[in-house]
Amino acid sequence: MTETESPVARRRTFAIISHPDAGKTTLTEKLLLFGGAIQLAGEVKAKRSGTQTRSDWMGIERERGISVVTSVMTFEYGDCVFNLLDTPGHEDFSEDTYRTLTAVDSAVMVIDAAKGIEARTRKLFEVCRLRDIPIVTFINKMDRESRDPFELLDEIEKTLALDTAPMTWPIGRGRSFAGTYDLKTNMVRRLDHDEQPIQASGPDDDAVLGLLPEHERAAWLDEIMLAQEAARPFDLQAFREGHLSPVYFGSALRNFGVRDLIDALAAFAPSPRGQQAAGRLVEATEPRMTGFVFKIQANMDPNHRDRIAFIRVCSGKLTRGMKAKLVRTGKSLGINTPQFFFARNRALAEEAYAGDVVGLPNHGTLRIGDTLTEGEDIVFRGVPSFAPEILRRIKLQDAMKAKKLRDALQQLAEEGVVQLFIPNDGSGAMVGVVGALQLDVLAVRLQAEYGLPIAYEQTRFSLCRWISSEDKVEMEKFMEAHNSSIARDLDGAPVFMAPNTFQLRYDEERWPKIVFSDVKDYQ
Ligand code: GDP
Question: Signal peptide span per the entry (predicted)?
């Protein structure tokens, strides 16, 4: 066994994907409680004391009560080290949310049992699918009135084209929710006695039926027999390939079913996977350190205008004091103060392995998608861009500062604050985001860091797609015919902007040789 093999095998790096209000925060707290990472739900403590400084965040986020600091939560449970990467949601939903999913090896999909698959869940799932990330499903809020479990499974299969394998089955729902039945082992977990499962002889065991009101028993027996007969069996390989999701039922609020979930992550979720770089696959167990930047966070400490670049370590061992090569520039970078981030604290990272996330203080040297290595010239195809859903034109109040604005926008776009688009027709720069808070953050940072007050203007465009074609002539024709709807992104790649999906579809149909893409790989 090589030095890095065993720490790698123990690690599970994952995120939770869900629609707002499905229970992500509640579940996160419960998971952390299992890991002993926090003492009280909601109160997160770091592992090492002494070296921590309390982090703070930008005024704008503080005003809104949004925690942007919780980037990664590390906890141990059983033999595993879990890195739970936070996917910002609600108002702070942003491209970071998508980008975080490029740094995980698996995801937990939380579904509200009364609502089923909701819009945000579907979007985040699609991002996971780009890399066939294995998904464990947690159907939450079973203690409330909920939909028929078969119907929920069917909805997952149909809307996400993802096979499901129920591992447990709810015993009752809503007010009669009494626990779950393990379809394979016949073990019964009772609500409020989660830690003491009982072995049943079958679903018709009195110990099971006795948990339900009498008038519900017959219908439930029919239901679970059907589930046992008709449900798809769990298949580890199909799960690892991202085609099949094991499904657990529970209630995060009642801390029920969370144990099943964490056990499932330990047993089935992959340890850090090999990461595809241009040219070759980098295995997590390789001895030399590699990693990529998937997120840059500014102003975590208002006293120091610091920016932290978050690196996902992909192989080898990152040690404090080592030198790494920043492949994009070829320059050497001293890793002197790598940090682990906890909910509101940070601590110096002495060493980190594949699957771990460390923050590097950074003054504009690192940008999203950058690869760090111990010398090898490889570039991870890690972090794509996603087509923005909000487009705005920037209105500069002082026209004399146009050049300064351009430079500032370039820098902030490289950090991934917003996406920048320069229209071909010479009109003013546009920015694109997936979450409205990104626009506020940009305006605040332009003012605070560059002294540039700006305003936003609506544009007639509401969406955009990267365009490409194997047929150069056709591409030129298209660009010419749509000159006022074409812009260039940060890397100069052409983008087509449309006022609505109707127009986009129309052009897609009329120009079959043009590829319209809503995702663009960085490199
Ligand atoms: P998030 O927006 O996905 O982070 O959702 P939260 O964890 O904040 O939960 C949203 C609301 O649902 C809160 O009021 C929670 O108390 C509630 N909630 C979460 N899980 C459960 C559950 O299992 N049962 C019930 N009844 N309520 C829940």
Answer: none
